[in-house]
Amino acid sequence: MQITFDQVSHIYGKGTPFERVALHDISFTIPSGSFVGIIGQTGSGKSTLIQHLNGLLLPSAGTITLGDTVITSKQRLPHEQRRNIGLVFQYPEHQLFEETVAKDVAFGPSNFDLPEAMVEARVKEALEIVGLDYEKVKDRSPFHLSGGQMRRVALAGVLAMQPKVLVLDEPTAGLDPMGRQSILEAIYRIHQEQKLTTLLVTHSMEEAARYADYMLVLAQGTIALQGKPDEIFMQAERLRELALDVPETVAFVSRLNQLLPDKESLPNSVYREEELIAHLLERLSVPKEG
Amino acid sequence: MLQNIAIGQYVPGHSFLHRADPRSKLLFIILFATLVFLANNTVTYAVLVAFTLYAGLLSRLSLGYILKSLKPVWILIVFTIILHIFLTKGGAVYFQWGWFTVEERGIQQAIFISLRLGLLVVISSLLTLTTSPIDLTEGLERLLGPFGRIGVPVHEIALMMSIAIRFIPTLMEETDKIIKAQTARGANFTSGSLVKRAQSLIPIAIPLFVSAFRRAEDLALAMEARGYRGGVGRTRLHKLAFSWRDAGIAAAGVLLAITIGWWRA
Ligand SMILES: Nc1ncnc2c1ncn2[C@@H]1O[C@H](COP(=O)(O)OP(=O)(O)O)[C@@H](O)[C@H]1O
Ligand SMILES: [Mg+2]
């Protein structure tokens, strides 16, 4: 589903002494099927931005277009449309409430009047996508799982609605490195398999570099930079001004390029860890000559 | 959606009223409430209204925002006005239609009683608008201190109050977040039968309780880890201290009391 923001602004607490402009004049277009990394300091407006995507917040000004649906300050998103946009909040495990894992994951799909058999199939599928064994966890209380498992259950709860757009607000916050990696891999897998449009909010440049094919950099409620990751990473100066860092791989390549003669320098488009390793190995394996 | 409820409506600032001691503000309000009930003619009410407006200026908040505090009671005020206009009799007759009359005393009482209500609400919201809840409970604790000697657990009550007040915004934020998250999962809180709607509160209530208990546990642990053992022997980081502002408030109180006493009928 294509997503377009046209001059969107959002003001919290309009008309009170607590009035606060959280988003100002945001415009971008995300083609269907993209994996977008949204990055920025705490308080830059990331969470506010993504809550507009399924109509939880309405823009104070401007227009949002989701596929064929238009959202403005006066036009809400119809209820049936909500299931197309799967929104995973920060610390989603804080929203678990059912007696059993299976019931909790079923909450989303049941709200859209699906037949029971279909709901069960979806629950099973969703739990398996996030790497949990359906038979083992379905009857357990979600409150007795480990933190990482709870996070997975919560994620499954959104995936079970089978959204076309998946929006994740810092899904790895507070997890250990292993947990981070595996949850992101699961997300990336489903993004590819089901051809989702995915928006990942993160403040790790590494995470963005690894998965995103488009990036939005937010600063103080405006878009400071947007573009393909390699275009963003080229502007290392600007990123530093925004108190953000380029990923380690990019820093490594640029340091290496300073040492190499110009015609042998590495291309900027190599910034994913695996690609970089492959590239370097290829360079280093000197063809055997007689 | 929940920001509109005005609990703990403190607006930080540096005005005269913000910097005055909470104890003098509290004592002044008690005096003011007494004076409002003593006022009984045009002059005394005019003095009180003028004084309240001046106090509003001293808070450096916009008048419109201060008057918003009347919103929850406006129905009560309108009701009072109607009741007095229709039922209170006496003095000149302004309007007559069959047995139904509107008379001078009715109009007068309608104005006075609604002013009385309005003044009380506005002046006490000036207190909560300019005093942080923490200062407020500390002021209360100090004022009620003497009752501690007769066995009232003043410190514990004050602590409970400040913790409760401290967590109201947090819990409201949490509620807001949970409502949003469940809405994103397709929950619908606004349509369906009454039973359905009551049921739809479960996905909000349970996570909210879980998080409240988690917070309570964390807080208890953190307080204990830092050596909290109750009120005995505790010293304070911020000592309340009277200043020239409080002398000003006291003077205003005395002046106001004399004025009202002199001019009331
Ligand atoms: N419910 C709210 N009411 C008022 N202000 C808010 C609310 N939520 C966020 N803000 C403010 O909006 C700004 C952007 O916040 P947010 O979107 O949460 O940023 P991020 O997710 O990038 O950390 C912050 O300054 C924050 O204080
Ligand atoms: Mg956020």
From TrEMBL, chain A:
It is found in: Cell membrane. The keyword ATP-binding applies. The keyword Cytoplasm does not apply. It is a peripheral membrane protein. Residues 3-245 form the ABC transporter domain. One of its GO terms (molecular function) is ATP hydrolysis activity. It is an enzyme of class 7 (translocase). Keywords: ATP-binding, Cell membrane, Membrane, Nucleotide-binding, Translocase, Transport. One of its GO terms (cellular component) is ATP-binding cassette (ABC) transporter complex. It comes from the Bacteria. Its EC number is 7.-.-.-. SMART domains: AAA. Gene3D superfamilies: P-loop containing nucleotide triphosphate hydrolases. ATP-binding (A) component of a common energy-coupling factor (ECF) ABC-transporter complex. Forms a stable energy-coupling factor (ECF) transporter complex composed of 2 membrane-embedded substrate-binding proteins (S component), 2 ATP-binding proteins (A component) and 2 transmembrane proteins (T component). Belongs to the ABC transporter superfamily. Energy-coupling factor EcfA family. This is Energy-coupling factor transporter ATP-binding protein EcfA2. It comes from Brevibacillus gelatini. The lineage of its organism: Bacteria, Bacillati, Bacillota, Bacilli, Bacillales.
TrEMBL record, chain B:
Transmembrane (T) component of an energy-coupling factor (ECF) ABC-transporter complex. Unlike classic ABC transporters this ECF transporter provides the energy necessary to transport a number of different substrates. The keyword Lipid biosynthesis does not apply. Pfam families: CbiQ. It comes from the Bacteria. GO terms for cellular component: plasma membrane. The chain crosses the membrane at residues 26-53, 73-97, 109-130, 150-168, 244-263. Belongs to the energy-coupling factor EcfT family. Forms a stable energy-coupling factor (ECF) transporter complex composed of 2 membrane-embedded substrate-binding proteins (S component), 2 ATP-binding proteins (A component) and 2 transmembrane proteins (T component). InterPro entries: ABC/ECF_trnsptr_transmembrane, EcfT. This is Energy-coupling factor transporter transmembrane protein EcfT. It is found in: Cell membrane. Keywords: Cell membrane, Membrane, Transmembrane, Transmembrane helix, Transport. One of its GO terms (molecular function) is transmembrane transporter activity. The keyword Transmembrane applies. It is a multi-pass membrane protein.
